[in-house]
Amino acid sequence: MKKHRYVQVGTGGRARFFYEALASKYNDTSELVAFCDINPARLEYAVNLLKEKHNYGPVRTYLAHEFDQMIENEKPDTVIVTSIDRTHHKYICRAMELGCDVITEKPMTIDAEKCQQILDTIKQTGRKLRVTFNYRYSPYNTKIRELIMNDTIGQVTSVHFEWLLNTSHGADYFRRWHRDKRNSGGLLVHKATHHFDLVNFWIGSQPEVVFAMGDLLFYGRENAENRGITKFYYRGTGSDNAKGDPFALDLNRNDSLRKLYLEAEEYDGYLRDQSVFGDGINIEDTMGVLVRYKNKAILTYSLNAYLPWEGYRVAINGTKGRIQVDIGEKTYINAGGEQSQEGAVVTKRIVVYPMFGERYEVPVEEAPGGHGGGDPRLLEDIFGNPQPDPFNRAASHVDGAMSILVGVAGNKSIATGMPVKIADLVKF
Q: How far is CA 69 from the centre of its chain?
């Protein structure tokens, strides 16, 4: 049997999720033939990890400016995009123009202009794009979809969704390239794309109008100064002022982080361990969003990135009752531990309140793996032998667009103080 040929562009922290799966569980049917990155040290790290851990290779390597040459030489069926968010559209579109299908990490892209470019390229080329929304595959989130599909609470009228990032995971977005909105679209795009997609997925509708407010209220130098902090530093590694600071990250204390980033700095100047209380942060850490959907349901959404608890709380109201969800997750620093621990569930509870009847807790199967057990199921769906799925968890480019456009509209609303119509952002 001919193996499906893959290449992967972007070999940072999230990339391992895909290339290790291809090199191990899906090696019989898949072939990872090449990596592409701007940084030769990260390319070397990925190649060596596959060789040493999985006895896999050799995987050929190309620098970013050699992307077209890689496609010509390797003739992949599918390109996996796990690069920095602002470059997703570039590789998605070019891969399609060169005759490849694409699998991309979320978010699909970061703004309306880049989203439109992707939509236009798909129309022009007829190629396929999958967006890897692993949270859809978590048994808990799938169960919510099932309950709503089964008319358990009738027609959904409103959703309240609160996501809490703690002082480990949340802070990590303010150490990295995500702290610049030009790279990530801010947390309303980079992180909340998961959450807006879940709501779209659960209620089976699409967003119509968005209003948002947000600000930087905890991280950043000015906020720290206002709280009386006097000791500052530029980066955590090697800084005396960073010693004893629970927000500091020392890259020397983790082998993966040291090899992926500290030893790679000389090639691209990227600092993985910047102070969360430094200057130059232009994303929000406190956000509230109001969304009206095409089916007239209303979403109230809250995201905070500096709290003592990690997880999410959801209330879904309908014409026949209410669903309450309480999920606690393990803390995690990207690329700083076992991937199976990222988003791993610690506490979980789904309770249904019928309009006339006794409340009851909904049993949900346990599933290993990151993102509430969603990661292994997502991998099986994209690389394995996918089975018919009554929940339609496989996310297309339309799903990818509809999730980011809530955040894009939210960013525009924060900037202007006005509600934003999704239809005014892009044309499908």
A: 29
Fold of domain 134-219+281-371+395-424: Dihydrodipicolinate Reductase; domain 2 (3.30.360)
Q: What is d(CA 378, CA 17) in angstroms, rounded to the nearest whole number?
A: 11
What residue spans of 177-319 are helical by DSSP H? 181-184, 187-190, 192-203, 221-226, 255-260, 265-268
Radius of gyration for the alpha carbons in the chain, expressed in angstroms and rounded: 21
State the DSSP code for 227: T
CA-to-CA distance for 68 and 15, rounded, in angstroms?
20
Residues of the chain with CATH 3.30.360.10: 134-219+281-371+395-424
pTM of whole model > 0.85?
A: yes
Rounded distance between C-alpha atoms, residue 407 and residue 193, angstroms: 7
- Nearest-angstrom CA–CA distance, 5 and 135: 26
Residue pLDDT, tens place only, 375-385:
999 999 999 99
- As annotated, the residues of the chain forming the CATH 3.40.50.720 domain(s) are 4-131
pLDDT digits (tens, 9 = 90+) for 16-65: 999 999 999 999 999 999 999 999 999 999 999 999 999 998 999 999 99
CA 57 to CA 361: how far, in whole Å? 48
CATH topology of domain 4-131: Rossmann fold (3.40.50)
Listed residue (309, 280, 52) closest to 166, CA to CA: 309
Token reading at 244:
């004893």
For the beta sheet containing 360-361, the strands, ordered from the edge strand earlier in sequence to the opposite edge, are: 360-361, 345-354, 321-329, 311-318, 156-166, 298-307, 286-293, 207-215, 420-421
Q: Fill in the amino acid letter for 166.
A: N
d(Cα 257, Cα 262) in Å, to the nearest integer? 7
Cross-strand partners of 421: 209
